[in-house]
Design goal:
alpha+beta; Muramoyl-pentapeptide Carboxypeptidase, domain 2; four-stranded antiparallel beta sheet; two-stranded antiparallel sheet; globular
Length: about 250
């Protein structure tokens, strides 16, 4: 084993072990408020930009993973991190109004939105644990977040192969996996979640009454959210994810 390989392996093993105590403690952390869970404020979020705002423990784990990846000339760059309830509401309502103006019914507009976007209060990005990443050392395609760029001869293949081998040792797991039996959101190889925090947050989130949340926060079009729609959305878009994150 040469010096570079020794340093790389030591770093990966060492930082992975450093994640484990946090991971174990996180599993028993259940004191999350309603507002934390739906993106209306979280004292543990740090950072000052769309790509740097994250849960403070996610920041530490990500820094360790970036350092290890750099040894393989992979430069992990975050293109999306924490997203507040208000920001998700703006995205959702902009699409809702646009689709309505194009002649879609409220129900049709909602169904079209949730093909690719989350309803405000239901995004994993509200937790500060989830990140969308690319390799900024690679030649950048025009539209970066496409699954084909992470496979075959795509520019992010090296990143994907490295993540498949090492990401979990830092606590990061792919959320929307390439499982043909999975429903809900499409496969997103760029979307990772820091499990030591997102697992207990998911456990707490599952106790929320989504219908009440939607009504209390006056989400546009929520009067058209039937019980069947909410149940289907919860089971497919929120819960049908990588089982290692449940």
């Amino acid at each position: 084993m040469n010096r570079k390989e020794f340093i790389k392996n030591s770093l990966i093993i060492g930082t992975g072990l450093n994640v484990l105590p946090s991971f174990s403690m996180g599993l028993f952390q259940n004191s999350y408020s309603r507002n934390q869970l739906i993106g209306l404020g979280n004292p543990d979020i740090i950072g000052d930009s769309y790509t740097s705002k994250m849960h403070k423990e996610t920041v530490i784990a990500l820094a360790k993973m970036k350092t290890a990846a750099a040894l393989e000339s992979i430069r992990i760059e975050v293109v999306s991190a924490y997203r507040s309830f208000q920001r998700q509401k703006e995205i959702y309502e902009d699409k809702y109004q646009r689709y309505i103006s194009q002649g879609l019914s409220p129900t049709e507009a909602i169904e079209k939105i949730v093909e690719y976007s989350t309803i405000p209060g239901t995004s994993r990005h509200h937790w500060g644990t989830d990140i969308d990443i690319i390799d900024s050392n690679a030649a950048q395609p025009e539209n970066i977040l496409q699954a084909r760029h992470f496979h075959g001869k795509g520019p992010y293949c090296k990143l994907k192969e490295w993540l498949d081998e090492h990401a979990e040792s830092f606590g990061f797991y792919e959320v929307y996996t390439d499982d043909p039996h999975r429903k809900g959101f499409e496969y997103e190889p760029w979307h990772l979640s820091y499990a030591p925090i997102s697992r207990p947050m998911m456990k707490a989130y599952k106790e929320l009454d989504l219908k009440t949340v939607f009504q209390e926060e006056k989400i546009m079009g929520s009067e058209h959210f039937t019980d069947d729609f909410i149940s289907k959305y919860r089971n497919e878009n929120i819960l049908d994810i990588n089982p290692d994150l449940l």
